[in-house]
Amino acid sequence: MHQAKWTLSETLCEKGLTYPLTLALSPVGRGQGWGKNLRKEEDKKMLKRTLVSLSLLLVAIFLMSAPGSAQQRGVTDTEILIGQWGPQTGPAAPWGAVARGTDLLVKIINEEGGINGRKFKYFLRDDSYQPAKTKAIAKEFVEQVGDRDPRGVFAVVGGVGVACGMTARDYLMENKVPWCGPVTGVYEWITPIQKYLFAIYPLYDDEAFNLTGYLYEKLGYKKIAMFYQNDDYGKQGVMGVERYLLKKKISLVAKISAEVTDRDLSTHALKLKNSGAEAVIMWAMPTHGALILAETAKIGFKPQWATSNTLSDSALMIQITKGLWSGMINSNFGELPDSNHPLMVKYREAHKRLAPQERWGVFYYAGIIFAEPFFEGVRRAGKNLTPETWISAMETLKNWQGIGPPITYSKPKTPMDRQGGKHVFYGKVKPDGTIQKLTDWIQITK
Amino acid sequence: MDIKRNYYEDIELFKSNTILVWSILFLIFLAILPWLITKYHLLGMSLYMVNLITINAIVAIGLNILVGYTGQISMGHAGFFALGAFTTVILVLNWSFPLWIALPIAGFTTSVFGFILGLPALRLKGPYLAIATLGFGMTITTIIKHMEFFGGRMGLQAPKLYLFGTPMKDIHYYYAIVIIAVLMVIGAVKLIKTRVGRAFIAIRDSDIAAEAMGVNLTYYKTLAFAVSAFYTGIAGGLFAFILGFINPESFHLIMSITFLAMVVVGGLGSIMGSIAGAALMTFLDIKLQAIQDIPAIGPALVTFSEKYMSVAGISNVAVIVYGLIMILIVLFEPLGIFGFWIRTKKYWKTWPF
Amino acid sequence: MLGQLIVSGLAVGACYALLAIAMVIIYKTSEVLNFAQGEMAMISTYVAFSLLDSYHVPFEWTVVFTFLFAILLGMFFELVFLRQAKDPTVIGLIIITLGFEMILMGFAGWKWGPDQRSFPFPVSNIEAYNFHGLIISKINFWTILVTLVLMFVLFLFFRYTKLGTAMRATQQNQLAARVMGIRTKWILSFTWAISSMVGAVAGMLIAALGVLDPPMMMDPLLKGFASGVLGGMTSLPGTAVGGAMLGIIENLFGGYVSLAFKSAVAFAIIVLMLCIKPSGLLAKHYVKKV
Fold first, then answer.
1. Domain B47-350 class?
2. What digits encode the pLDDT tens for the residues A291-301?
3. Structural domains of chain A, with CATH
4. How far is CA A332 from the centre of its chain?
5. What confidence category does residue B349 fall into, taking pLDDT thresholds of 50, 70 and 90?
6. Which of B344, B78, B121 lies closest to B232, judged by CA?
7. Confidence (pTM)
8. What pLDDT, on a 0 to 100 scale, did the predictor assign at position A26?
9. Sign of torsion, CA B338 B340 B344 B347?
10. Distances (CA, A) of C84 to B68, C173, C284
11. For residue B108, with 0-12 CB atoms within 10 Å meaning exposed, 13-18 middle and 19 or more buried, which class applies?
């Protein structure tokens, strides 16, 4: 038994650093192994075969070059391809309803014969609110969907999630893919100014600013507290609120944040109560909305609550708060679920016919709200549909309204030229879960 | 050919001529893969997905070194992944390090944290270790979330990289990632064959016996954590750049669980297994939702959902199938995909006996 | 404020403790960390919700049927998945429970849809008892009561009954237990059944406190793990104490130090506890003999 001496490779490996170096410097390992065997006949043949096939492959690569295609991506004489991603599974699944709402609108439009003679093919993908998947979906949308070259969709509509959208934004913009109506009201869609991105969702910052103003001036609440979720959505709400209060030279009596996964809000409620606030502005998700209302009611704290349009699904909220939601003031970005607007009547009727199993909730028909302007743009662009013609068409929208806010776009000289939705209206929740309009459409973004 | 005649044969990289030839063929395949994917739309994959698979493979190999070879558990690797991603982006964004310098630095920073995690891990085994690493992973993400330096909740945008003047596209990333991955695979294979690797395996089989034989448990256990973290950190750095925008929210527990699943499904203690496991799990993760589009099954699912389930939640079928595949592979082939491979090889070798 | 924080902490800690108890029961008998605990409880709660909401079954009967379902679910999981595993490693078992968790979550999302629901519990969360200014809601009060009772009953069960002793024996050495005549396979099924039942209780109470939706148990599960680690994974009174302590520490931290980092406290506690005293506060540490 002889002792195995440390070869050079082992010493280097032991230091754990220079793996490629060891591979190069271990002559003992190499020589013993395949150097000798290469003299055998079969191995020589195999090597020859490999080399021959490799060269054939290289020749094939040179010979087969795909000619460039002159057709517009995602548009044929009869079809337009569009896509949307959404969290159909996972913790954010309730927002998946938006993508399914757009599906309803596509079905309605196709039933009416499409636009300018073309019907729409709609691709709905689930990204479970994971940005890595959203990027994969964006790549699929641009490079793969469809069955004729050039592959890809004409445009992307909607799309829930800031992190998810941010992953896809630059890629879509580089590939000149129109994107209409991301379903979040953050600045990231309009700064820096993107030629192909048209935002619709009213900005959270401005919404909060205006809501605070409404509470302070119109309703006379001077001691205002804020309860918000610790993410971009919540933080941009805080920005708006504090911007307004700064103007009035006062500050929030309490600024309480909660993590998305928190399920125990008793301490938060206690702090809110101890602050003595008359009104509390809430920038959170439905589950937190329900929890904080229960906790504050439990300890006997009943301020005037106000919240953003993310919690405007009052039918759902009144149910999960067991009635405590009554009296909540919230802003809205679209017609109320039971409104008699002719378009709403038409959509409700189609919903009953085509998707009766879906709940007619605010975030279901939000999928319609954030897609309507896109289709109007397609209409106005006419038969010759390219991203450029669509963009020019969109820029002609001035106070155009479907069931959402009035949409206005212009040539992109400032970020606000790409912010289509600049209005909301306020409502108060009645004990039966319906909303009573308090104001008409108010402009929140200049 | 399986019997080694001396120590040097045991530690050489290519065991036989066949393996060498197949390795070369595989490398050639990797080299022309981008062309195959874009021209023929292989399996509906994009180059981005291949990049993602390779990155996950690097993580899986790193995790396998810890779990498969050293017998530890880690449910917090998403934390190391996040650390690697954020460190690399900050180095490139704020101080303009070139990527090939920033990556190793990020790797080493992450391995320092891996070492820190390894210290309490010395006394913990099994379920306790799992929970400790879980806690560690989540603490890292929470800290990153609250530090403005890391972009806070809003995340960081990875800067555009340029290769000799042209902006880097998927295909450039592909070659860079594949080269790095190949180097790391060679490194891992070599590592296992040396003293360090044997120490790891000894610790896995029986750490008390290993200590009795003179293996310094403290050194080797923490080294295992550090090496594993190094791999994950580098993968994290690459991930940040192919994704383009990183946000601490996305490095959650489910990601750690997915990494673990890749390793177990692929095969504990097998480098090839981790690559296969990573490929399978990533592919399923992204593509499984296509179940709804399969001609016969799709509409059947919809009618079934309308009658007994909810239509809104129909995409959850993909989640159910994913979990089921995970369980079935672990149940019927504890050695994972690598186990399938070994069994197939044995079957062919011993046929017709 | 201090008093109120402590009282609220106790209330929420009781929820964590219930889940932790369910986990400890399984851990005591088969050394498996059940990551699917939360989702098993969630599905049982959804079943209760369906019974209450769609079929209008009176609450007492709903509880009985939910328990039956939970028992069957636990036994099903043990029989179909765990028993099939041949000589599983710790990590293999973890992956199996994780896979089951995904299946259950996907199933709940598919069957009932992702929208949040309100769980119709007969005891209200809003009406509260007021002890000298300290407010505790009726549900919170009942949760603490149920936890204490359950913990006490189970503790006696494990310590003094034949079945309980048999379960402890199965954990310590399965082979020896079989040699001694204990039907280990049946014991294992029974363990999972009980654990699933306790989980169902936890699920219903947690849903009553908040909302019912598929991911509702993800966070309580982690907190349950933390309580188990804090109190000792092999000690039932320990986990109850651990849960209470965790709830109180969290609330005190949130109230006086930083509300933003409140949820990180649980994880920091886990890591610290495992560094200092891995077996937990109240559990005995068994050193494996070579």
1. mainly alpha
2. 999 999 888 89
3. 12-53 (no CATH), 81-202+343-412 (3.40.50.2300), 204-332+428-443 (3.40.50.2300)
4. 18
5. confident
6. B78
7. 0.87
8. 45
9. positive
10. 22, 20, 31
11. middle
| pLDDT tens digits, one per residue of A54-67 | 555 555 554 444 44
CA A61 from chain centre, in angstroms, equals: 40
**What three-state secondary structure class fits A416?**
helix
Instruction: Please tell me the distance in Å from C63's CA to the nearest CA on chain B.
Output: 23
Contact by Cβ (8 Å): B293, A144 = no
CA-based max dimension of chain C: 59
Name the more confident of B42 and B32.
B32
DSSP string, A143-202: HTSSSSSSPS-SEEE----HHHHHHHHHHHHHTT--EE--SS--GGGTSS--SSEEB-SP
Alpha carbon of B165: minimum distance to chain C alpha carbons (Å)? 44
Q: Pick from B289, B312, B315: which is nearest to A358 by CB? A: B312
- Domain limits, chain C: 2-216
Verify whether the Cβ–Cβ distance B127 to C115 is below 8 Å: no
Please tell me the predicted confidence (pLDDT) of residue C82: 76
> Angle at CA C162, nearest 5°, toward C161 and C164?
65
Terminal C-alpha separation, chain C: 52
- Cβ count near B345 (within 10 Å): 10
User: Which candidate from C33, C94, C274 shows the least CB-CB separation from B132?
Assistant: C274
Tokens of B293: 């589009």
- Every domain of chain B and the residues it spans: 47-350
pLDDT score recorded for residue A32: 43
CA distance B88 to B100: 10
Backbone Cα Rg of chain B: 21
Three-class secondary structure of residue A101 per DSSP: helix
Tell me the DSSP string of A29-68.
HHIIIIIHHTTSHHHHHHHHHHHHHHHHHHHHHHH--PPP
Whats the size of chain B, residue-wise? 353
* Parallel/antiparallel/unpaired status of strands A179-180 and C134-137: unpaired
pLDDT, tens digit, for every residue of B64-79?
999 999 988 899 999 9
Task: Find which of A49, A58, A162, A167 to mutate to test the B interface (most B CBs within 10 Å of its CB).
Answer: A167
Burial class, A343, CB count within 10 angstroms (exposed 0-12 / middle 13-18 / buried 19+): middle
Quote the CA–CA distance of C218 and A91 in Å, as a whole number. Answer: 9
Amino acid residing at B323: G
Is residue A282 within a helix (H) or strand (E), and if so which, with residue range? strand A279-283
Residue A258: CB partners within 8 Å, gap ≥ 6? Answer: A227, A228, A229, A230, A265, A268, A284, A288, A292, C259
Provide, as residue numbers in chain A, all residues whose Cβ is less than 8 Å from the Cβ of B155: 163, 166
- Residues 6 or more apart in contact with residue A305 via CB below 8 angstroms: A279, A280, A282, A293, A327, A328, A329
**pLDDT tens track, chain C, 290 positions:** 788 888 888 888 998 999 999 998 888 887 788 999 999 999 999 999 999 988 888 888 999 999 999 999 999 998 888 777 777 778 888 899 999 999 999 999 999 988 888 898 888 777 788 877 788 888 888 889 999 999 889 888 888 888 888 888 887 788 888 888 888 888 888 889 999 999 999 999 999 888 899 999 988 998 898 888 888 887 888 888 889 989 998 888 888 887 777 877 778 877 787 778 777 777 666 665 55
DSSP single-letter state for residue C286? P
Distance CA A238, CA A245 (A): 11
- Helices H, strands E: what count in chain A? 17, 13
Q: Which ipTM did the prediction report? A: 0.89
Instruction: Reduce the DSSP state of residue A300 to 3 states and report it.
Output: coil
- The closest CB to that of B41, out of A40, A144, A169, belongs to A144
C52: chain A residues, CB-CB within 8 Å: none
| Pairwise CA distance, residues B158 & C267, whole Å | 29
